[in-house]
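Researcher: Quick test of sequence recovery. Tokens follow.
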């Protein structure tokens, strides 16, 4: 078996504990069957049976590459408000990853932090892995710049005191419509991000491409801005046609 990274909480109900292992594994990163077995240390037949069962209940779902990822029922069960962005991203992020060959993510602002609500990694090679649910500061990185650039003054001003960028940087982000960063959030990582708007034109999230500087370069915007903005537009289009 591979190295399991999922938590090993034991309730005494074997099938429940194993199902929770599967849920944690696919929440950390989309998994095919081999990756799921490696992440959970479950036998192949058991992992497959549980994954298929959880998929039938919509607790997990498959992305366009066939990997399992968190399903819509998890968000529906979390409350009456359903975040439609992760569902819409299922059809948008794979294409953006294919175009860029890099890691792609979507972030929402949550107070003084940003949280990753959707992510896909390239199938091989060095990557910038940000699992779904990861919380990152709003003080560095291209996604933080995008989310702060259109945030209310009462949110933006206090966070700028501790940020590696200044208000003039955010003004430039608003002018260009996208942001980039080089070794801000993590050494050796560059990224580019663009805003995602709701039906009222409000910025509700940021879509990002990130990867090693040695591969993505120090001017990722020159390479990927047009493709990223197109992905943001496509995502907004899907959100606009999604049922309430």
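Model:
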């Amino acid at each position: 078996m591979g190295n399991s990274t999922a938590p090993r909480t034991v309730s005494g109900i074997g099938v429940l504990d194993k199902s929770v292992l599967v849920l944690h594994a696919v929440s950390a990163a989309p998994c095919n069957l081999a990756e799921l077995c490696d992440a959970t240390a479950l036998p192949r037949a058991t992992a497959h049976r549980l994954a298929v069962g959880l998929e039938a209940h919509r607790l997990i779902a498959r992305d366009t590459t066939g990997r399992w990822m968190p399903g819509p029922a998890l968000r529906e069960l979390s409350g009456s408000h359903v975040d439609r962005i992760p569902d819409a991203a299922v059809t948008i992020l794979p294409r953006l990853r294919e175009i860029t060959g890099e890691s792609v993510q979507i972030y929402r602002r949550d107070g003084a932090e940003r949280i990753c609500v959707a992510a896909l990694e390239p199938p091989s090679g060095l990557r910038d892995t940000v699992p779904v649910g990861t919380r990152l500061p709003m003080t560095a990185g291209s996604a933080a710049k995008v989310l702060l650039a259109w945030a209310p003054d009462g949110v933006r001003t206090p966070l700028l005191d501790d940020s590696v960028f200044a208000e003039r940087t955010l003004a430039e982000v608003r002018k260009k419509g996208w942001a980039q960063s080089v070794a801000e959030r993590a050494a050796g990582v560059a990224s580019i991000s663009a805003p995602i708007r709701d039906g009222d034109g409000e910025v509700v999230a940021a879509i990002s491409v990130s990867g090693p500087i040695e591969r993505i370069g120090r001017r990722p915007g020159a390479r990927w801005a047009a493709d990223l903005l197109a992905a943001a537009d496509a995502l907004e289009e899907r959100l606009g046609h999604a049922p309430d």
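The longest helix spans residues 220-241.
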